[in-house]
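Run log // design_07
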């Protein structure tokens, strides 16, 4: 059993009858009073983020996890189907287990976190960014270029992305999977 001193970014722990991944942590040693660890935890089952403070030396239940690369195949009304890149076995995940799933396109490689004990899937993580083609873009408003003006665009997966005025249908763009924001236009 680990203690709060062993907390590091990426560690998965069992807390409040759920499994959480440590996103941020800070060891604090105030001048007065005992030391503690301030953490930001993200649930791997539902994606909810909570802030929690552990006292120094507090016992935590570490969960052993493994990550594997899977290829996104297709989706149906309930969830997504993936194929293991090593043994070609298939895996099914519910729609709630993946954030910004509207940015996934067929053939995309996704990292799936599995519980080591029984290899049950806990969550899936998209790459930091994806390259998508714009299929439809609103017309830009002329004379509105003094500031960073944005317009709506629909990409090949059906997701809506706010893009700069110069982006047109047919352009390829790089999109952040964390918040679904435009990063840059991709030159081919």
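design_07 sequence
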């Amino acid at each position: 059993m680990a203690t709060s001193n062993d907390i590091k970014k990426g560690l998965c722990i069992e807390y409040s009858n759920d499994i959480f991944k440590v996103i941020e942590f800070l060891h604090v040693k105030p001048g007065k009073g005992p030391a503690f660890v301030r953490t930001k935890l993200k649930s791997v089952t539902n994606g909810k983020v909570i802030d929690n403070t552990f006292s120094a030396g507090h016992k935590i239940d570490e969960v052993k996890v493994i990550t594997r690369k899977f290829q996104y195949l297709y989706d149906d009304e309930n969830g997504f189907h993936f194929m293991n890149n090593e043994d070609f076995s298939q895996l099914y995940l519910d729609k709630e287990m993946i954030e910004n799933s509207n940015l996934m396109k067929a053939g995309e490689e996704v990292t799936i976190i599995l519980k080591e004990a029984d290899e049950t899937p806990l969550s899936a993580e998209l790459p930091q960014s994806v390259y998508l083609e714009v299929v439809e873009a609103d017309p830009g408003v002329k004379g509105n270029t003094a500031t960073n003006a944005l317009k709506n665009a629909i990409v090949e997966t059906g997701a809506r992305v706010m893009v700069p005025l110069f982006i047109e249908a047919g352009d390829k763009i790089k999109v952040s999977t964390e918040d679904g924001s435009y990063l840059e236009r991709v030159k081919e």
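The chain has a mean pLDDT of 85.
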